[in-house]
Amino acid sequence: MKTFNDSAPSYDKWYEGKMGAFADGVQTELALKLFKPVAGMHVLDVGCGTGNFSLKLARLGLKVTGIDVSAEMLKVAKKKAEAQDLAINFLEMDAQNMEFPDDFFDGVFSLAALEFIREPDKALDEMFRVLKKDGRLLIGTINRNSKWGELYLGRRQSRDSVFSGASLLTREDLLSWKPEKLLASGQCLFLPPDTPEDKISPDLERELSSRERGGFICALWEK
């Protein structure tokens, strides 16, 4: 299995392409729309990788801690934060066994990370544990029942892919966790992964939203 340490130097190239930039944009828009972050909040970014979302939160005025199991991904994240003069606390830590006290963060985010965690329920319980009372947890993940899900499920056959050990969830899977605490959910990335570059647009995204399953799903819980 290709590890995230191996892919760290080239990981951000995905965001440089037109589809990568578009996917990142709609995923971020949905996550922030659901969570509604407020400047000054102390938030945790679980599975932060190269810091893509952590940096966005910090630019909004939030106090951010990002954790990941990949030391190499965190090195990239720290360099990016330093280059942008953003004070983000990046730590090498397992989401399934966090080294934070109970009721510690105002909010917890985890985008495109849960599918790579071996015991997702254990990680979700940990995220909820470190969340303050009335705090909010936002999870975003690839939708197994979508064209993007089909693409990444196919990549599980390759030992050189980070998806070789991934476990994708359906919308129903995600929403079944603590349904009594669930506040809202949404989906985005209706464009299929094989969309030609000259067709990638918000207009097509809106058009396909009426008949396609979103490739990315988000859910919001309150403790």
What can you tell me about this protein's structure?
- With 223 residues, this protein is of the alpha/beta class.
- Strand 2 (63-68), helix 5 (71-83) and strand 3 (89-92) form a beta-alpha-beta unit.
- The protein has a single domain (4-9, 16-30, 40-95, 102-222), classed as Rossmann fold, CATH 3.40.50.150.
- The termini are far apart.
- It is globular.
- It has helices at 4-7, 13-16, 18-35, 52-59, 71-83, 120-129, 147-155, 171-175, 202-208, and strands spanning 42-46, 63-68, 89-92, 105-111, 131-142, 182-188, 216-222.
- Strands 3-2-1-4-5-7-6 form a seven-stranded mixed sheet.
Notable features of this structure?
alpha/beta; globular; 35% helix; 223 residues; 9 helices
Quick rundown:
It contains nine helices and seven strands; from the N terminus they run H-H-H-E-H-E-H-E-E-H-E-H-H-E-H-E. The chain is an alpha/beta fold and 223 residues long. It has a seven-stranded mixed beta sheet with strand order 3-2-1-4-5-7-6.
Count of distinct strands: 7
| CATH class term | Alpha Beta
Low-confidence parts, pLDDT < 50 over ≥5 residues? Answer: none
Q: What amount of the residues lies in strands?
A: 15-25%
Number of helices: 9
In sequence order, what are the helices and strands, one letter per element? HHHEHEHEEHEHHEHE
> How many structural domains are formed by the residues?
1
What is the architecture at the second tier of CATH?
Answer: 3-Layer(aba) Sandwich
Oligomer: single chain
What's the shape? globular
| Major β-sheet strand ordering | 3-2-1-4-5-7-6
CATH superfamily: Vaccinia Virus protein VP39
Cα-atom radius of gyration: 17 Å
Give a short account of the largest sheet: 7 strands, mixed
The secondary structure category is alpha/beta
Mean pLDDT: 92
